[in-house]
Amino acid sequence: MAKQYETVIGLEVHVELATKTKIFCSCSTEFGGAPNTHTCPVCTGMPGSLPVLNKQVVEYAAAIGLATNCEITKVCKFDRKNYFYPDNPQNYQISQLYLPIARNGYVEIEVGDMKKKVRIHEMHMEEDAGKLVHDEWDDTSLVDYNRSGVPLVEIVSEPDMRSADEVIAYLEKLRMIIQYLGASDCKLQEGSMRADVNLSVREVGSEKFGTRTEMKNLNSFKAIARAIEGERQRQIDLLEAGRSVVQETRRWDDNKESSHAMRSKEDAQDYRYFPEPDLVPIVISDEWIAEIRARQPELRTEKLERYKKEFDIPQYDAEIITGTKKLADIFEATTAICKKPKKVSNWLMVETLRLLKEHDMEAEDIRFSPENLAKLIELADAGTINSSVAKEVFEKIFTEDVDPEQYVEEKGLKTVNDTGALQAVVEKIIADNPQAAADYRGGKEKALGALVGQTMKAMKGKANPGMVNQMLRELLSK
């Protein structure tokens, strides 16, 4: 009988914090920017320069720790992790090994009908390294230190996940919590959230863990799911062939859908960690923790409850809208302007989600303003524009955030409510389509739809469909 294998997965998730300046200097953390323009002697590792800790980093890290049910370490400190790499300007990274800021937490995930706690081993603060840019043409590597010194938290889970679905559920839950806190935008494609996957396989029923590998270079949820499947299969094939899995770091190539070995796995002693001599320990008092806790915003669970009571929208809609902070923010801001929560919910649930899918965008990428969505809802409600025109205008709002009132005015899209003008068009349509008119009079209700369509076409979609329908029925029954 073929052996059955179980996958065991733990994650190391790096999150760039949304501070304006870096962790130990006052350089900008903004993404983009010409290479090496967001730099200074501290973040490029110049001799004699000294780091000064950014207080906001500690506050964000503690907020994430509290929201993920961790114990906050009241006296924590930084350590030096020594390694030589061209994008690491000091030849060491300031991180936390012995006393990380938070430990022993968990987040609850849902996969299908199953709820499960994924434990968090620890979370520490550290600085990011620079970025190497490999130029194939010149066969050279260039280094950009803009990212060097950007503050990170690294969240290390226990090996509690057993499938790609559980991993994605865990990452989505973490991303949602961190976005709600405003601690990071968690954009995988910009690298502000990165996950390294530690994976091993073992025979079902075995208590002992197999040998694990670590996979890097994963910049989308889809790539993570593919990498897990690929690595699981590779390890099973090795074991089936009587060979052993080597503990190593592997790089996932999403285009080729395969991974290759990068280096053998280092252990803590390889990094010669020692306490960072240039920084004093951080003392986090009970008062400070209470202050951070009091500032925590409303998280998703509380929002869901409030939406159901306050806005009377369906449970399903409330779950989708609160699933990302961006949608929740737009929903609340638009509702505050037009006071029509159900209408706002419909526009977000139907048209917004459709356009996000069409443009292959995430909710975080939405650029339109609540003001313009509220104006559109008012125009459609007042009958100034009909529903098909409203959808057309919304596409413009979605892509260019146009002012719908101006746009409707400029393009002459207002609904024609002038009965005289409309009657002349309807009479012409009946005269031009004698067969359809005869079919309707003969009891074929479907024929009316064709005549309504012809009239709307003649009116360039600007007639009131209800009015057209009513007028056709009246004229055809004479």
From TrEMBL:
Any single Pfam family the record assigns to this protein: GatB_Yqey
SUPFAM superfamilies: GatB/YqeY motif (SSF89095), Glutamine synthetase/guanido kinase (SSF55931)
Gene3D superfamilies (UniProt xref): 1.10.10.410, GatB domain, N-terminal subdomain
Enzyme class: ligase
Residue ranges of domain Asn/Gln amidotransferase in the record: 329-476
Keywords: ATP-binding, Ligase, Nucleotide-binding, Protein biosynthesis
Domain of life: Bacteria
InterPro entries reported for this sequence: Asn/Gln-tRNA_amidoTrfase_suB/E (IPR017959), Asn/Gln-tRNA_Trfase_suB/E_cat (IPR006075), Asn/Gln_amidotransferase (IPR018027), Asn/Gln_tRNA_amidoTrase-B-like (IPR003789), GatB (IPR004413), GatB_C_1 (IPR042114), GatB_Yqey_C_2 (IPR023168), Gln-tRNA_amidoTrfase_suB_CS (IPR017958)
Tagged with keyword Ligase: yes
EC number: 6.3.5.-
Ligase is among the record's keywords: yes
Reaction(s) this enzyme catalyzes, per UniProt: L-glutamyl-tRNA(Gln) + L-glutamine + ATP + H2O = L-glutaminyl-tRNA(Gln) + L-glutamate + ADP + phosphate + H(+); L-aspartyl-tRNA(Asn) + L-glutamine + ATP + H2O = L-asparaginyl-tRNA(Asn) + L-glutamate + ADP + phosphate + 2 H(+)
Transmembrane segments: none
Family the UniProt entry places it in: Belongs to the GatB/GatE family. GatB subfamily.
Quaternary structure and partners: Heterotrimer of A, B and C subunits.
Chain's role: Allows the formation of correctly charged Asn-tRNA(Asn) or Gln-tRNA(Gln) through the transamidation of misacylated Asp-tRNA(Asn) or Glu-tRNA(Gln) in organisms which lack either or both of asparaginyl-tRNA or glutaminyl-tRNA synthetases. The reaction takes place in the presence of glutamine and ATP through an activated phospho-Asp-tRNA(Asn) or phospho-Glu-tRNA(Gln).
Protein name (Swiss-Prot/TrEMBL): Aspartyl/glutamyl-tRNA(Asn/Gln) amidotransferase subunit B
